[in-house]
Amino acid sequence: MSVPPPLPRAIDVVLKGGLVIDGGGAPAFAADVALAGDTILAVGPALDAGGARVIDASGLVVAPGFIDVHTHDDLVCITQPEMTPKISQGVTTVITGNCGISAAMLRFDDAVDEPFNLLGACEDFAYDTFADYRRAIEAAAPRVNVAALVGHSALRVLCLEDLSRPATAIERARMDVLLRDALAEGALGLSSGVFYAPASAADVEELQGLAKTVAEAGGVYTAHIRDEREGIIEALKEAFAVTAPSQTPLILSHHKCAGVRNWGRAAETLGLIDQARGRQPVGLDCYPYTAGSTIIRPDLADGEVEILINWSEPHPEMSGRTLASIAQDWNLTQTQAAERLMPGGASYFQMAEADMRAILSHDCCMIGSDGLPHDKRPHPRLWGTFPRVLGHYARDEKLISLEAAVHKMTGLAASTFGLKARGRIAPGMKADITVFDPDTIIDRATYEAPDRPAKGIEHVLVNGELCWSRGVPTGLRSGRFLRPR
Q: Considering only CA atoms, which of 448, 395, 371, 356 is closest in space to residue 89?
């Protein structure tokens, strides 16, 4: 019997007997994984644990920690650093600042303006610079790593005197100064959300200039496009036009074909995306549900899709009810009822399952929960996204392989966003590791009970520290603020 060679330095933890899915898309293989501090030291059969702590991974999958590429965890990672909705489903890194909505540099005197109210309360907006925001995350020591985008809508609020028009040359210059400072302080790039009112008047020229600055810094540009319904083709072309001149990597946020009249168009939109990928870098993310969630928007109350009210500031008693039933009780149209319920949040059952499956299985599609942690009654994607992909769509439905699913959540996400030394199980990589049971992993959060933790996540290590084990958090919080490469 051969004896494995000694490891080059002392090890602290060995995960023994597991099936490694390394995050690169390769087939799973049996191996032990040895950790020294926050780094993976060795991957191989029958590693000598010596006096190291041993975690028995027999019958379990050892994978890189999942990267949630689309979150609105900007403030909750500071105010609630336990990050239980994310660590409980195997997420070890969250990317904040999406949809043009970011928290750094913004302050509000009274009520928080929409859509920034998706992030937190007035008192939570307390960071005058991006560096202040980064330092607050570092001081809070959340249980997961945090990487952050700068929101274009936030820049507009800070720099424009009138949000109902495109930025002037002087205002574009002001935004550029703030963006450059944030990029220098560790921001991943810029996010836009021209779907939302603060940025809906922005033109391509305004966005192209900021995208060029991002490209010069080696960052990425994520886009909540202007229209995910009937105007989706024109909206996609607008996003391509923003980043094409500078070749800034474009990531299409929560790609979907929304609205009944748009169902069945995923082949068309994905074909257009593939054409663009031949000319410029383009990626996308999605979540594995047919309902989206955002603020209450009367213009989306078309009477054709079901709308579930998650919360309403003037009518909190309506949480959990459908807009149609509320409108009937009030003897109003759904549009009128939505106006009366504002401000608030809702889930919109607006996608076809076949379209979502096509998008989810696309080679360049990553996984993002788009969860809203500040919602009083959140969409179940906040707690269930990653186990739902692994358990329902990979294992049960066999839409994609388990290896492909893990790749979307780890290696693909890390390389797309420039997160160095993350997303792979390999020597020299950071020890962000999720250990799960492939036979039992599944989401348990529902629209009726949206905060139920997933099943089958056995252990989660963040930077080499065991932060979740057998269904409960440990006392450790070892997340970091991640700067891009």
A: 371
Alpha carbon distances (Å) from 260 to 236, 323, 349, 370, 410:
19, 17, 10, 22, 33
Q: 431: exposed, middle or buried (C-beta count within 10 Å: 0-12, 13-18, 19+)?
A: buried
Question: What is the dihedral angle through the alpha carbons of 245, 206, 194, 242, rounded to the nearest 10 degrees?
Answer: 0
Cα–Cα distance measured from residue 376 to residue 309, given in angstroms and rounded to the nearest whole number: 11
Rounded to an integer, what distance in angstroms lies between the CA atom of residue 449 and that of residue 379?
9
* CA-to-CA dists, residue 465 to 36, 142, 160, 469, angstroms: 10, 13, 44, 11
Alpha helices in 290-380 (DSSP H): 323-330, 334-341, 353-360
Asked if residue 115 has a cis previous peptide bond (ω within 30° of 0), the answer is yes
Neighbours of 88 (CB within 10 A): 25
- Paired with 30 in beta bridges are 19
- 3-state SS class at 442: strand
Distance, CA of 197 to CA of 230 (rounded, Å): 19
Closest CA to 63 of 17, 23, 12, 94: 23
Provide the 8-state DSSP code for 199: G
pLDDT in tens, 137-177: 999 999 999 999 999 999 999 999 999 999 999 999 999 99
User: 182-232: per-residue pLDDT in tens?
Assistant: 999 999 999 999 999 999 999 999 999 999 999 999 999 999 999 999 999
- The distance of Cα 29 from the centroid of its chain, to the nearest Å, equals 28
CA distances to 53, 119, 120, 203, 358 from 266, rounded to whole Å, are 48, 30, 33, 26, 7
Measured CA to CA, the distance from residue 355 to residue 400 in angstroms comes to 15
Residue 455 CA to residue 482 CA, distance in Å, equals: 28
Decide: helix, strand or coil at residue 241: helix
| Residue ranges in the chain whose pLDDT is less than 50 | 1
Q: CA-to-CA distance for 36 and 56, rounded, in angstroms?
A: 17
pTM for this model (two decimals): 0.96
Q: How far apart are CA 310 and CA 375, in angstroms?
A: 7
Residue partners of 451: CB distance under 8 A and separation at least 6: 85, 378, 382, 383, 445
Residues in the chain: 485
Cis peptide before 343 (omega within 30 of 0): yes
**Angstrom distance (rounded) from CA 92 to CA 87:** 6
107, HSE (Cβ side, Cα atoms, 13 Å): 8
Hey, what are 124's tokens?
Answer: 């939570």
